[in-house]
Design a protein that fits this description.
This protein is an alpha/beta fold. It is 18% helix and 25% strand. The strands form two sheets. Strands 7, 8, 9, 10, 11, 12, 13, 14 and 15 form a nine-stranded mixed β-sheet that branches. Strands 1-2-3-4-5-6 form a six-stranded mixed β-sheet, with no helix packed on it. It is globular.
Length: 247
């Protein structure tokens, strides 16, 4: 899955561009516990655990820049007090990095209120870093992102559904590497170079996921990607093969 030296970190939902000391994560959904609590599920906040994981990665790889690829917060349109405190504390832990690149997702309508001085807010239709396009994935990326060699998205929380001989189903977070359907791409982006599309698994384990081997994707990429012929990888790097062949 390595290209442009952008590579997944084993056993983590994070990408690393090591030569630039850059880390990429998506779908933190800070505050999702509030919604779960309203549904009768009382689960401790995952924010301290995510902070610990992120700080460990920052230290291990001497991270200088971070790309937060959307859905940093969870509740919309407003944020409960607990969520606001958690988001503020989360950003305060990132003061040591030079730049935090924030690409807003569909849950991030008021994220600008929380951003520290070292944060750079990009448009929701994405931005380019070292000829790699980054967009959350809930809306169509702009034209120039589709001319990159590689495009990284989040939003869909990809998982693989595995069924054992007794019919028991398990869902494992996964990476997805896909190409676009050429006929759809030509109509929407006639000047595109048909980039490799990499879909990040959610950084927050409470997000659940969409089983890609059941044809489940979210947003406009659902119609754009050749999902059956995409490759799926577990977080430990295991290549499961093409999505259409995973039962």
């Amino acid at each position: 899955m390595k290209r442009n030296k952008l590579q997944p970190i084993h056993h983590e939902s994070a990408l690393l561009l090591q030569e630039k000391h850059l880390l990429v994560i998506a779908d933190l959904h800070i505050g999702i516990e509030t919604e779960l609590r309203d549904s009768g599920l009382h689960i401790p906040s995952q924010t301290p655990s995510m902070e610990k994981r992120l700080l460990g990665l920052m230290k291990k790889y001497a991270i200088q820049e971070i790309i937060l690829l959307g859905d940093i917060k969870h509740n919309i349109p407003t944020s409960p007090v607990v969520e606001r405190k958690d988001v503020d504390r989360f950003f305060s832990l990132l003061q040591s990095v030079q730049t935090i690149h924030v690409v807003p997702g569909n849950h991030d309508g008021t994220i600008y209120r929380f951003l520290p001085s070292n944060a750079m807010l990009h448009p929701s239709d994405g931005f380019i870093y070292k000829n790699i396009g980054f967009v959350h994935g809930h809306r169509w990326p702009r034209e120039d992102l589709m001319q990159c060699h590689q495009l990284v998205i989040g939003h869909t929380h990809p998982t693989i559904m595995l069924t054992d001989r007794l019919g028991h189903k398990t869902f494992e977070p996964c990476w997805v590497r896909a190409q676009c359907l050429e006929d759809v791409l030509e109509k929407r982006y006639p000047s595109s170079s048909n980039p490799d599309i990499v879909i990040l698994p959610a950084f927050n384990p409470l997000c659940g996921g969409n089983p890609v081997n059941q044809g489940s994707l979210l947003g406009p990429f659902k119609t754009l990607l050749d999902l059956p012929n995409a490759e799926a990888y577990l977080l430990d790097g295991t290549l499961l093969g093409k999505v259409k062949d995973i039962r």
